[in-house]
Amino acid sequence: MKTLTVELGRRSYPIYIGSGILNNLAQKLKDYRLTSKCAIVSNPTVYKLYGEAFYNSLSEAGLNTVVVLIPDGEEYKDFFWAYYILSKLLEEGLDRGSVLFALGGGVIGDITGFVASTYMRGIPYVQVPTTLLSQVDSSVGGKTGVNHPLGKNMIGTFYQPMLVWIDVQTLKSLPEREFLAGLAEVIKYGVIWDKDFFEFLRDQREAVLKQKEDVLIEVIKRCCEIKAEVVSLDERESGLRAILNFGHTIGHAIETVTNYRQYLHGEAVAIGMVAEAMLAQKISLLSTEDAEMIKEVVADYGLPISTGGRLQRAQMLKAMSLDKKARGGRIRVVLPQRIGRVRIQEYIEVEKLTEVLNSI
Ligand SMILES: NC(=O)c1ccc[n+]([C@@H]2O[C@H](COP(=O)([O-])OP(=O)(O)OC[C@H]3O[C@@H](n4cnc5c(N)ncnc54)[C@H](O)[C@@H]3O)[C@@H](O)[C@H]2O)c1
Ligand SMILES: [Zn+2]
Questions:
Q1: Rounded alpha-carbon distances, angstroms, from residue 175 to 131, 142, 153, 169
Q2: How far is the CA of 178 from the centre of ligand 2 (A)?
Q3: Does residue 200 surpass a pLDDT of 70?
């Protein structure tokens, strides 16, 4: 098992990564001497696969636990279902010493973190991410939240978990498309922070795609390390943390224009990364060679690199200026300078952006 720490002073916490470790969490929890009733928050899809054994492992360790399930899907990551979970916790008499376990992907992690941050003014929660995206991204860093009809993730808190427990074996049951989408975020870490890691991904493609266990653990660990480092330097996204949004300005616009139906988040980010690399190349920030390399690696991982010209450019531009990361109507975008280094560009000529949007 690999361990690393997210260094945030009093709010620091460990991340554990291993294979087949899911039901060993109960042993680790002995260090925390929990006595209050706890809750597992999950959805029926994940609970059916892993819930019962996980629940039993907690019970055997002497933990009194209740299970709260919400339906499976991004559309349930909202205020109503957060309220539903809060109500269940009150009914079951959870108190300030209780801990929530978020067993599932990013949807479960985000809503559970949000609930934990508000239940009795904040109780601890443990992230037990079961998708690649949640293992390399959403479970680390303490952004919690729910969606509102007027915008995704618009209601939320910064609230760090007590620990993160990652079992790579849970990825075996993940649909391939979800796994690949998670890899887009993995590639992102290489581009924004670590050229060696990017090259490792390029060279180890087969092992990664085959989910070779030791390679997978290494990959997830490196992603968590990078995210942990960025978050520890800028917990509340006043600057640096925004680099994690590489590929996301255009990626979010693609998701908005397609009503979140056509592409998984990671797929939209994959196209976004290729497009933003192209943009960086157009303004002479990035070499053609590096832009091509980014595109090649994204494509080699079976991720989309273009929308096939089907999206309306005008709608895309509109979606971007409404993006919550756009300040004062200007389009803010994270652009690579070379593989392993990016910068936050505060201003982009609309013509250049339009040219890129025309070509994706
Ligand atoms: N908090 C953050 O920093 C952050 C960062 C990135 C994304 N997010 C959020 O994460 C969410 C997306 O997360 P996601 O991609 O994990 O989606 P998800 O949670 O919807 O999971 C995807 C699907 O896989 C299923 N699933 C989960 N684990 C499985 C397993 N082991 N085997 C089989 N099926 C499994 C889920 O039930 C779901 O149907 C979005 O709401 C997004 O806003 C948050
Ligand atoms: Zn993302």
A1: 9, 26, 24, 13
A2: 13
A3: yes
